[in-house]
Protein: cyclin-dependent kinase
Amino acid sequence: MSTSTPTTPTKKRSRWDAEDDDDEPPVQASSKRRAKSKQAKSETPPVQTPASTSTPPPVRPEPIRPTHSVYVPPRTLHPALTPSRSVYCYERLNAIEEGSYGVVFRARDKQTGEIVALKKLKLDEEKHGFPITALREINALMTCKHENVVNIREVVVGDTLTQVFIVMDFIEHDLKTLLTVMPSPFLQSEIKTLMLQLLSAVAHCHERWILHRDLKTSNLLMNNRGTIKVADFGLARRYGDPIGVGGLTQLVVTLWYRAPEILLGAITYSTAVDMWSVGCIFAELILKEPLFQAKGEIELLSMIFKLLGPPTAASWPNFQTLPLAKTITLPPQQPPQLRQKFPYLTSAGLDLLSRLLTYDPENRISATEALQHPYFNESPYPKHPDLFGSFPSAAAGEKRRKPFDSPSAPVRAADHKLLTDFDDV
Ligand SMILES: Nc1ncnc2c1ncn2[C@@H]1O[C@H](COP(=O)(O)OP(=O)(O)OP(=O)(O)O)[C@@H](O)[C@H]1O
Ligand SMILES: [Mg+2]
Structure:
């Protein structure tokens, strides 16, 4: 074998996402090697074994194969597993965003010319195999296919096992960026449409036993036809699965959107955590800025207590049983300030908001119930998505945008967990 051919591709050529323009796949030394060995094999003369010269053994009758049970689905329902395609099937266009867990690129499918988004999963430092959180993200996206959930097209691989990309439809905007660049806030009719879409996506995920656990405006994408797509299932997990001894992780949901039961250390929580985040998003769409811009958990709790009035035995019967409830001193009772904060919202709108921002998770409105709320049936009615204005897409620009001025998603504590673990500590 020639020593000049590298056995592994050089770093520069192997990185699809590196900052150079060379997006052709490196020459695979292994395929050459395989070709060579094949040639060598075919050149070898057939070995004459003593058996080949003697008389052949008598032919045994074929054993009768048992027919399959009628319950076994036909082969056509089990398409063969095929290897993932290469990232080099895509031409890299620009980096959209570098988030906590990966970089997102805009790219073009070389075969079809379609524009897509590629999210590179951060696996470089992974020492314990493919992280369960990455599998959960892929699995949740595939489980929750819906008009208002970003469409996963495929998973592609780079040159090494640490280069895995999720290929999604490219969506022009995220709501966080849009809210900061829009000259005026969304109209009530537009907010209703956006909320209906968000709620139907969340209801769909919850029906499929998936908690998103990181709903926030930067994870809500919107195309130029007024359609919202819930994205970033990086913290998603199935609920109803067996839970480990330590309970569910409390390091979920970006601080400003985090439900009070998680802040108070609840070891089990459910779909209601997503509904609290939906309440924060609803408020943000109206205010054009995040509702609770707290620097830490204590400040966040006191902001919540101020807006809603501190919890009482009536409003949150299980409050005292929460692990951290004893460690905080509740402020004196004061009336909620929700009405003052949202003076122009109709009483139906305010009712929906307060049902989403309800302390007791047992009492918090579900996505399915919220979809039926009278707020959506009163004037002004939800605007047809086609009538939404379009905006220039920051994500399609050639320049990388500045990171957001908001807290990032919690660090994934579960990355080191192996696939055999059921729990989520
Ligand atoms: N399909 C897409 N089309 C266009 N832009 C996208 C797409 N997916 C993600 N983005 C952009 O990339 C950003 C980061 O993506 P995502 O939230 O999935 O990654 P992340 O690393 O988990 O981010 P973070 O930790 O900041 O939430 C999004 O806020 C959005 O601006
Ligand atoms: Mg995100």
Observations:
- The chain is about 25% helix and 10% strand.
